[in-house]
Automatic annotation (TrEMBL):
Residues 229-245 form the Prokaryotic-type class I peptide chain release factors domain. The keyword rRNA-binding does not apply. Residues 77-104 form a coiled coil. Belongs to the prokaryotic/mitochondrial release factor family. Keywords: Coiled coil, Cytoplasm, Methylation, Protein biosynthesis. The keyword Cytoplasm applies. NCBIfam families: prfA, PRK00591.1. It is found in: Cytoplasm. The modification N5-methylglutamine is found at Q236. This is Peptide chain release factor 1. InterPro entries: PCRF, Pep_chain_release_fac_I, Pep_chain_release_fac_I_sf, Prokaryotic/Mito_RF, RF-1. Methylated by PrmC. Methylation increases the termination efficiency of RF1.
Amino acid sequence: MDQIFDKLQAVSDRYDELNELISDPEVIADTQRFMKLSKEEGGLRETVETYHHYQDVTTALADDQEMLQEKLDDDMTEMVKGEIADLEKEKDELEQKLKILLIPKDPNDEKNIIMEIHGAAGGDEASLFAADLYNMYVKYAEMQGWQVEIIDESDTEVGGFKEIVLMITGDKVYSKLKYENGAHRVQRVPETESAGRVHTSTATVGVMPEEEDVDIDIDPADIRTDVYRSSGAGGQHINKTSSAVRMTHLPTGIVVAMQDERSQQQNRAKAMTVLRARVYDYYKQQEEDEYNAQRKSAVGTGDRSERIRTYNFPQNRVTDHRIGLTLNKLDKVLAGDLDEIIDALIISDQAEKLEHLNDAEV
C-alpha cells in the first residue's frame, strides 16, 4: 500500500492547493479558470474525504491496540477487542474503496453522448429490433432524469429503423452508456413467421462522447460541405430550399448528412456535432485497438462489430457475453430496467483496472 499512500497524499496536497486557489480573488475574477479549478476540486473531494476518514480509523485502531497493552478489567478488555474488530473491518473496506477511487477516470465519463442505432443483419426484423433498442434506451434515460433528442432517423415501412441518431444529455451519461457500444443480437419469432421458427437478427449500437470542447483539432480545410434539397415529408419548403447538409471529413472519409431541420444553419450545426463525435471516435478506436493488441480488455467500450449481448424472447432471457451475466427478465430490460446489467459491467471494469493497479504496485 506504500505507493498508494504516496498517491493519496499527493491527491490530498493538490486538494488543499486547489482550495487555496479558488479562494484567491484573482482566480475568482477569472471565471474560466475558477470553473476549471472548482471542477478539479470537486473531482478530488470524495477521495480526500475517504483518505482522511481512513487516517482517523487507523489512528483509532492504533490507540485501541496500545490500550490493550495496559492492565484493563475483563469488561473493558472485551469492549476494546470489539472496537478493534470493527475498526479493522472498516479499515479493510476503506482501503478497497481508496484503491477504486485511485483508478484513473475516463475523461469522457462526465460527457453527454451521441448514440447511433443501426438495423444490421436480418432485414425488417433487424430494423424492428433497432426500434426496440431505441425505446429501451429512451425509457432508461427517463429513469435517469436525462434528456433525449433525435438528431437524425431513417425509418422503414414496417415501423423500424434503418438508423436513428440520438443526443442524450444529463449527469454522467457516457459513464453508464459507454458499455452499450457493440453488436446486439435478438432471437425471436417474427410476426410474419407462420411456422413459428425462431429467427436471429442483429442491430449495432455506437456510443460516442459529445465533443463540444474538441479534444482533437479538426482543420476546416479537411471538411467538404455540400448542400442540397431535402427529401421526404415537409411540403413545399423542403422541396424548394437547399437546407440539407452533407459534411465529409476528408482524412477519414467519414460522412454526415443532416436534413431534419428547416434551416441550413440548423442542419450545419447538428451535422458538425455528429461529425466531431464520429471523428473523435475514429481516432479513439485506433488508440484502443493498439492498446488491445497488447492487453485485451474484458469489458472496455467494445468494438462495434463485437457481439456483446443476446436478447432471447422465447425464454425471456438476456445475456451479456462479456461478463457472462444472464438475467431472466428480458421484458423488464426492454422496459428500461438496465441498472443491474450496467452496474455489473461497471464493477467488472473496475475489478480489472484494480488488478492492473495492484500489478503496478507490485
